[in-house]
Structures are given as structure tokens and as C-alpha cells.
Amino acid sequence: MVVVDILNLNKEKVGQAELPADIFDVPLRQHLVHEVVLAQLANRRAGTASTKGRSEVRGSTHKLYRQKGTGRARAGTRKSPLLRGGGTIFGPKPRDFSYQPPKKVRRNALKTALTAKVKENELLILDAFDLPEIKTRRFVEAMAGLELDNALIVTPESNENLERSARNVPKIKVLRSAGLNVYDVVKYRHLILLEPCIAQITERLQK
């Protein structure tokens, strides 16, 4: 077990939490993190780049000039890729870039990312992050009290006041524990977990 302090929004210690070693203290396998991050970025690609080939561009199919006797290279239609306004040779077409690494790889990559946060002292456990109203200023003040300006905040369930107060703050993201992923853990410098998230993450990764 890995023992960490539980803090409140005033950065005062209010207790301790035990983190399972098979999730928060595993060997660091960076190649798995790299593989999963690449897959997540590939899945985000729109894949809508498209060009027209010589059969698709607009233009006459009339032969430009006679085949022989001009001294020039033979030419067919003005749709030729060699001419201005002609088709594109081997250009991109809409495609799906997405792929899915094995489930075991995804799970171990997330464990590695979480372990790295613990080892680098970039994991913070809060007892709660309750805001009385939707107010960005209140959220910024709370983050200033924690002395953090680049963080991923993981909540156990929907928290509209927190989510809407933080959505316009740069370098901050609020995410529910069900959507915890490798890319976001790696992207943000600090990881803030609300205490109930520990049990949810443990249940998810120990299946």
C-alpha cells in the first residue's frame, strides 16, 4: 500500500488514504504509455482530408493536340496530373485512423501514468472540492490556495458547479473518474483526485 495525505482546499491535512500498490506503485513501462497516447491521438483525427483524382476533376476530355508531329510530349485531356488544374496523383482520401490497443495494455499504461504521478509528488488527494455557486473567480481562488495552475481534477460523479466554473480556466480540466485516461493524466502536470475516486479507480483497474 502507498499512504498519502488527504488535504482540504486550504491545503490542510485532514486524514490519510491508502492507495493499492498494484495500481499506484507498479514498474514504470513508458512504452505502454507511448502506445496508448498515440492511439488516443489517432482516434481523435477527423480523417477528412480529400483530393480529386484525374477522373474526378472538372474539365474536357478533348485531346489537347495531335499525338505526333508537334515535338511535344503526347498529351490526352487537361485533367492530367501534369497540368495545372489537373487531378492529384495518390492524394489523400477520407479514412479512419482509429485503432484500439489491447485492454491489458491500456490498463497497464494507466497504472504506469498514475504511478509516475505518485513518484514525482504530483498527485493530490482532496476530501472534497465543493463550490457554492458557478463562479470562475471562486475556482481560481481555490486553485491559488492549493498553489496549482496546471492540473487534471478527477471527480467521482457529475459536479456542475465545479465543471462549469473551471471550463474557461487554461491548463485546467475537470474529468469524471469513469473517463480517466492516459493522455489527460500525462498532459497535465498535477493530478487531483477527490477521495471517493480512489475506490472507483481501484474497482476499474483491478477487474
Description:
- With 207 residues, this protein is α/β, with parallel strands linked by helices.
- The chain folds into two domains: 153 residues, Ribosomal protein L4/L1 (Ribosomal Protein L4, Chain: A), CATH 3.40.1370.10; 41 residues, no CATH class.
- Helices cover 34% and strands 15% of the residues.
- The chain has seven helices and six strands, in the order E-E-H-H-H-E-H-E-H-E-H-E-H.
- The chain has a six-stranded mixed beta sheet with strand order 2-1-3-6-4-5, with helices on both faces.
- Helix 4 crosses helix 5.
- The longest helix is centred in the middle third of the chain and has 17 residues.
- It starts with a strand and ends with a helix.
- The mean pLDDT is 95.
